[in-house]
Amino acid sequence: MSQPNKPVDQPALKLTNTENYREDYANSVQVRMSVWDFFLVFGTMTQSSPDELQVKNFEGIYLSPQQAKALWNVLGHNLAQYEQAFGQITLEQVPPQPNGPVH
């Protein structure tokens, strides 16, 4: 008979960075999907004039549907913790101010 609350032994986790590991900032993420995978394209978006946005993509990552869902769960959990600590995140667009700076 099995013990219902017996902890399951987990393997030790060893994290290392490959030689091509890098950290970067992205304010643009495009998501594409197929039956087999999700493709996330990270980039930086800038606006040098009111009528043009520029996106420079720098990394594309393929994820299995299972990893995409796991990422979605982890992001949701971490966003909830962030909002609990710092307040609600809004996605409202601020209308451009006439004659104001363009970023």
* Number of distinct beta strands: 3
Order of helices and strands: EEEH
Report the span from N to C terminus.
65 Å
The helix fraction, in percent, is: 10-25%
Inertia-based shape = extended
Low-confidence stretches: none
The tally of helices reads: 1
- Indicate the mean pLDDT: 88
Strand content: 25-35%
Architecture (CATH level 2) name of one domain:
Roll
- Indicate the CATH class of one domain: Mainly Beta
As a whole number of angstroms, the C-alpha radius of gyration is: 20 Å
CATH topology of one domain: Transcriptional Co-activator pc4, Chain A
Structural class: alpha+beta
Widest sheet, order of strands: 1-2-3
What's the story with the biggest beta sheet? Answer: 3 strands, antiparallel
Features:
103 residues, alpha+beta, Transcriptional Co-activator pc4, Chain A
Describe this structure in words.
The chain has a 3-stranded antiparallel beta sheet with strand order 1-2-3. It has one helix at 65-86; strands at residues 28-33, 38-49, 52-63. β2 (38-49) and β3 (52-63) form a beta hairpin. It is extended. The longest helix is centred in the last third of the chain and has 22 residues, at 65-86. It has a domain at 28-86: Transcriptional Co-activator pc4, Chain A, CATH 2.30.31. The chain starts with 27 loop residues before the first strand and ends in a 17-residue tail after the last helix. With 103 residues, it is of the alpha+beta class.
